[in-house]
Structure formats: structure tokens, C-alpha cells
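Render this sequence as a predicted structure.
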Amino acid sequence: MAKYCITVPYTVVGVIFLFSCVSANFYNDFDITWGNDHANILDNGRQMQLSLDKASEYLFGKFELQIKLVPGNSAGTVTTFYLSSQGPNHDEIDFEFLGNLSGYPYIMHTNIYSQGQGKREKQFYLWFDPTAAFHNYSLLWDAQQIIFLVDGTPIRMFPNSEDLGVPYPNTQPMKVYSSLWNADDWATRGGLVKTDWTKAPFVVTYRNFKVESCKTRKNTSSCNFVSSRQTRRGNVGTESLVSTQQRQQQNPFNERLRWVQGNYMTHNYCTDSKRFPNGFPRECTRQTFS
């Protein structure tokens, strides 16, 4: 049985049952597809325990995962690393990597949902081959902003704009997910290029998953990672008399963000007039460098 997809919600357990006409063994005839740390095989494979708990839900934090993407002809495949809550009005923060034909670059797709509202896509090419080695992808999420980083370089920042009437994900705890799946109806060139199953199995590799959770109170958070003030100003606890525009121009954080978006961003919902003919979403007024 070919296996090329893994889903990791980190809190529950999934098992594929492979039936045959002989006596089955949990070591040899069953696959744990996710939640491996919540499964325990006993008695030389004759027994298996599954456990379910409510751990590993987060309201704010820093989430890091090193990924080596599917090499070669990955057209039609999508690799994901994201946070999500549950229900129709869910919150979600996405990294998605859209495969492509050999010799063509991956597209890194980012999106944010709050209270079930999405349509905040920004897409990028990467400045390296993401299939040749592991690279670190990070999500920093607190009560003030969401920051996407690649190998420590910021690529996108989404500020809290609730004062403008824009929903922001700050009330629903989220779990961490990762997956590899077939999406050839849309992933590569709008679905024109289909998955070539003669190239299967498609393999993505993960390592060094890290979480730094935050202490939270209503609409505030205390995190060990870089604070919002430090991110915006480039230093800690130092007040500056320069204007906001000057700080943005001088701050190394914003310089790196501007470099990525100026050279590698391929789609920005805040400039998509075909999608928003009656005016861009309100938060776009605050996203000069995001």
C-alpha cells in the first residue's frame, strides 16, 4: 500500500488498518498516520493503546519547523505547516508550499483566517532551493501581530487592526498541523498541471519542531521571543524621537521585510484590484511593509 501523506495534529491519533486473512500484528499490519506519541503497542504487537487528551492547544506563541520539501516534479502537491482552531468561524495561520514541475520554483503561499474570514493571501518565491536542504519556517503570533519568517528572515507581518473593525485571531486556541496532499485541481498553474503519479511516492521531510508558548491575559500576551516593540523598533527598551517613517526605513527588520517583498513576492491581496474592485480590505492601509 503506497503511503505518501502524513498529517500531524499533535494531540490525537490516527491509524490505518490493513486487513488480511491471516492473524494481524500491530507492528507489521497497522500504520500510525499521526499522533505517534499517543499510541503504545504492547505484548509483541498483539495489543495497542490509543490515548486522547486536550493538550497542545496554543493561544499565542512562536512555532518553528524545519522542512525539506518534495524534490523533482512536485506539481499538484501541497505541503503545509499551519495553526488552526475548530469550527465554521475558525482562526488559521498558514504556510503552504505549492509544488511545481522540475526546474520551476515552488510558490510559498501564506494566508490568515480570523472568525472564518480569509482571502488574505500573499505568495512568494523562495531565494533558495527548498528541496536541497532543511530550512526553518516560523510563525510568531501574539496579541499585537503575526509574523511569518523563513530562516529568521521576516517575509510578512499582519498587525492587529481590530480598531479598524478587522477581526484578529486572539480568542481561539489553535493546534499545530502539517500535511502533504494532492491538490492538482488548483495548486500548480491554477490546476492546469496535474500530479504525475508515476513520480510517486512524493516525500517531504520534517525535523526540529519547536514551540514557545506565551502567558496570556485578555488581549495581551507575555512571550519569551522577540516582543512587538523590539520587532518594530529594532532594539529593546530604547525610546526614539525619530518619526515612524524614519524608524521603518532604518529598522533592519523592515529592511529585510522590504527586501523579500520587493524581490520575491508574487501576489498580494492588498493590490488585487480584480478581486476587490470596490476597494481593498481595511487592514491594507497598515501593510506598507507587510
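Summary. The chain is about 10% helix and 35% strand. The CA atoms of residues 156 and 290 lie 5 Å apart.
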